[in-house]
Amino acid sequence: MDVGRRIETVLDNAVSHAEAPGAPPLLAEAIRYAVFPGGHRIRPRLCLAVALACGDDDPATSEAAAAAIELLHCASLVHDDLPCFDDAPMRRQKPSVHAAFGVPLAVLTGDALIVAAFETLARGVTRSPTRLAGLVGLIARAAGSPAGIVAGQAWESEPYVDLVEYQQAKTGALFAAATVAGAAAAGAPPLPWRLLGECLGAAYQVADDLRDVACRQEEIGKPAGRDATLGRPNAAALLGMGGALERLKHLTQEAIDVIPPCRGQDAMRTEIEAQTRLFMPASLRAMA
Amino acid sequence: MDVGRRIETVLDNAVSHAEAPGAPPLLAEAIRYAVFPGGHRIRPRLCLAVALACGDDDPATSEAAAAAIELLHCASLVHDDLPCFDDAPMRRQKPSVHAAFGVPLAVLTGDALIVAAFETLARGVTRSPTRLAGLVGLIARAAGSPAGIVAGQAWESEPYVDLVEYQQAKTGALFAAATVAGAAAAGAPPLPWRLLGECLGAAYQVADDLRDVACRQEEIGKPAGRDATLGRPNAAALLGMGGALERLKHLTQEAIDVIPPCRGQDAMRTEIEAQTRLFMPASLRAMA
After folding, report:
1. What separation in angstroms does the CA of B27 have from each of B105, B113, B144, B216?
2. Which stretch of A16-25, A60-69, A123-132, B235-244 has the lowest confidence by average pLDDT?
């Protein structure tokens, strides 16, 4: 099965558990709506690519880790879109969860997805039970406080924002989790893989900033120009389009340079080149 | 160390991790505010009591399970109090989290507490790693969809509410988790302990309904009469005070009757009698 199919299958299994008989029907519907259809599934792809580069001796474990990371990503999108944060009406070319189901169900959908992430992990990691504690720890660290995506979002409520902590937590943490969890899922030491994830997270953040400034809503599936509207820092606004594209190129090369020695190093390089192309919508790819 | 101290210590450790250097200061403050000072800590007490009744051969594991359950309980209080749900201005004799810190930080505090629950579990279960997957599964089941506290809250957004599913999910699930996780943490089969948790959950729900109808805000630390205001079912309103007290007595006896055979059966009976007295505020205890 190709990587994309593996990811959709394991996510479908996770969502099926959450919508099992007895579930409140609207909550079940909202959970599926928040996860499918997905975006490029960049984080779980990265997780599985690293696992493969490390031998992937237990595919059920690496798939569970990949799914957990994507479920947490989906949860963060649902909560970040809420009226009390970005108040985003659209996401992935359709109404955001709170626009479609109301604020109460959007709050609960995010909550249920966070729980489902850890449940999926525990259910999938059966052949290598001693890897579970490490994986829960690595993935929880990327999700919660002090330095995960929840903390990243919380910096927006602080009177003084540490910009590096903010972007590292809000975007970098889950990319770093994708690489370290991929390694840990395959029984390899996770730490050497963190820098790669952090570089890719930083590159993704620049690409996202470029999209926000340069693309129309139809192409990116959510309103454009939100950073300016919400007063958030944006690399393309700070460095100009040319400067931001230069920075993106630099970060991509840095990511390739920091791939740790492993059997699948060449394949990993190809994968990262392919993934970083996915970061940007078609209209910007020609410029990069 | 007595049980109460053990619970506060393990919760303090969990919160300390979430507020470690690098955390957004207001988020860190809100997380601690949501967990301390606590209520009666009924669920973690129950979890530790069951673990003890089953031999408690790995106290770090049972403490981690107890803390995870209490953190999830605190998360649910923070989110349920939000303006889009109960819009509760007070909780545990002080302003609710959103009243004190604003809605965005209240959403994120709940999210961070859910993540912290699983992180605490993974960190604490080190001596018996093969117990971790089961514990994550049992506790996640009580928290998420289809039948955990998130699902319970989601029934309030449904046009047709299944009352049994609603109360079982909203209150019963976490009590059941406390008993089954207590057994699993001690390496005992969890399933025989589920019924005890469900009985106690049902008893607690009746006691909570009685408090809502019969007590003043000063005594219960949150506004009284909310069920009538919010149009929610309430046993004291349905059965009358006398009927509800009768039902509470019946459920407490049933709980005692269904304690599974175990070394600590007598101590367990004493503990349950003590706990069910805690369910009710002083002004109602004389009537029960």
Report:
1. 6, 11, 23, 31
2. B235-244
Domain map (residue ranges) of chain B: 3-285
What is the sign, positive or negative, of the torsion defined by CA atoms of A173, B73, A155, A95? positive
pLDDT digits (tens, 9 = 90+) for A96-125: 999 999 999 999 999 999 999 999 999 999
Q: Residues for chain A: how many in total?
A: 288
Q: Please give the residue of chain B at the shortest CA–CA distance from A155.
A: B24
Residue A114's SS3 state is: helix
| Chain B (13-52) residues lying within 8 Å, Cβ to Cβ, of chain A | 17-28, 31
Q: A95 - beta bridge partners?
A: A90
Partner-chain contact B104 A112, CB within 8 Å? no
Q: Does the CB of A164 have a partner CB in chain B at under 8 Å? A: no
Task: Suggest the residue from B150, B165, B168 to mutate for an interface test with chain A (most A CBs closer than 10 A).
Answer: B150
ipTM rounded to 2 decimals: 0.96
Instruction: Decide if A144 and B79 are in contact by the 8 Å CB cutoff.
Output: no
Which residue of B lies nearest to A131 if distances are taken between CA atoms? Answer: B129
Tens digits of per-residue pLDDT, A186-199?
999 999 999 999 99
Chain B CB contacts of A75 under 8 Å are 111
Q: Which CATH architecture is the domain A3-279 placed in?
A: Orthogonal Bundle (1.10)
CATH of domain B3-285: 1.10.600.10
Reported as type and span, the H/E element at residue B94 is: strand B94-95
CA B144 to chain CA centroid, Å, is 14
